[in-house]
């Protein structure tokens, strides 16, 4: 397979939209808003909440700035301090979660990204994510090429260990969640190339984290290869993928990767 520049996956923090040429860069007050959102996301991603020290180290903020922003977030009720002196999401955060489900349900929110991939490549594309502990295909689109991969149905959730999207989502999640998922989802062989050994699969996940994308080399379906990348700013919970006949995968790999990364931009 054609090699691509490796980009190690790391904790995702929100970034401001790119500044267009000729415009004035935002003032520090915008930076404060970004830092507050970063704290909120860090708290939401933690399994048991975070202490002030955890937040300062994770986000590389000064203690004074961290205290100021936490006080502001706490006053709104969007975070609260639990009995262990850790900051966790507060009741006000429910309004954001409910609003997301009401206004931007994942299939609708992701569909335009998926369609853009099909338009640019003519290949079958999809978006997958975590839903109630399962890795699910949320939005799919058939390719426009005369000879292409079959479209997987929305809602499909089987054999994540053999699919590019599934391997990427498992690689990015907390290790305990990954292990628990593998404990309850047998890594059965779909083809002769499916990785079924747990240790080998975990090494594959480390490789995925290092390079920033996942590949399915005919592990789910013979003659079909897939490529998946994470969507920026969504804490590794949603990914975009493309399914391609093996005969043209290597030749067009760089194009496929560039198209996926473009569609995965947070401000797409």
Work out the helicity level.
Answer: 40-55%
- The geometry reads as globular
- N to C succession of SSEs: HHHEEHHEEHHHEEEHH
Gyration radius, rounded: 20 Å
Q: What is the class of the largest domain in the CATH system?
A: Alpha Beta
Structural class: alpha+beta
Number of domains: 2
Low-pLDDT stretches are: 1-5, 10-28
Topology:
Layout: H1 28-45, H2 52-59, H3 63-76, E1 79-81, E2 87-89, H4 93-103, H5 106-121, E3 124-131, E4 134-141, H6 164-172, H7 175-184, H8 198-211, E5 214-217, E6 224-230, E7 238-245, H9 246-249, H10 253-263
Antiparallel strand pairs: 1-2, 3-4, 3-7, 5-6, 6-7
Helix pairs in contact: 1-3, 2-3, 5-10, 6-8
Notable traits:
Arc Repressor Mutant, subunit A; alpha+beta; 2 domains; five-stranded antiparallel β-sheet; 268 residues; Beta-Lactamase
Question: TL;DR?
Answer:
This protein is of the alpha+beta class and 268 residues long. The protein contains 10 helices and 7 strands. It folds into 2 domains: 1-103, Arc Repressor Mutant, subunit A; 104-263, Beta-Lactamase.
How would you characterize the overall build of this protein?
The strands form two sheets. Strands 4-3-7-6-5 form a five-stranded antiparallel β-sheet, sandwiched between helices. Helix content is 43%, strand content 15%. A hairpin with a 2-residue loop joins strand 3 and strand 4 (134-141). It has two domains: 1-103, Arc Repressor Mutant, subunit A, CATH 1.10.10; 104-263, GAF domain (Beta-Lactamase), CATH 3.30.450.40. Residues 1-5 and 10-28 have low confidence and may be disordered. With 268 residues, it is of the alpha+beta class. The relative contact order is 0.14.
């Amino acid at each position: 397979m054609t090699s691509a520049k490796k980009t190690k996956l790391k904790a995702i923090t929100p970034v401001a939209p790119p500044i267009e040429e000729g415009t004035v860069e935002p003032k520090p007050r915008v930076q404060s808003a970004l830092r507050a959102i970063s704290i909120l996301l860090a708290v939401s991603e933690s399994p048991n909440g975070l202490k002030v020290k955890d937040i300062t180290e994770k986000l590389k903020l000064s203690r004074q700035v961290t205290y100021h922003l936490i006080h502001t977030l706490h006053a709104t009720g969007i975070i609260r301090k639990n009995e262990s002196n850790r900051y966790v999401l507060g009741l006000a955060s429910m309004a954001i979660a409910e609003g997301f489900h009401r206004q931007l349900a994942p299939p609708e929110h992701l569909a335009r990204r998926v369609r853009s991939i099909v338009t640019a490549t003519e290949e079958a594309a999809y978006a997958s994510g975590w839903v109630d502990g399962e890795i699910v295909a949320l939005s799919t689109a058939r390719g426009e090429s005369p000879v292409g991969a079959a479209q997987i149905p929305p809602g499909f959730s089987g054999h994540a260990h053999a699919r590019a999207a599934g391997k990427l989502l498992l690689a990015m999640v907390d290790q305990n969640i990954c292990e628990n998922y593998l404990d309850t989802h047998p890594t059965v062989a779909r083809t002769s190339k499916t990785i079924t050994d747990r240790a080998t699969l975990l090494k594959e996940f480390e490789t995925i984290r290092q390079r920033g994308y996942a590949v399915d080399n005919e592990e789910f379906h013979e003659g079909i290869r897939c490529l998946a990348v994470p969507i920026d700013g969504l804490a590794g919970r949603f990914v975009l993928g493309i399914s391609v006949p093996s005969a043209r995968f290597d030749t067009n790999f760089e194009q496929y990767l560039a198209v996926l990364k473009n569609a995965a931009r947070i401000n797409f």
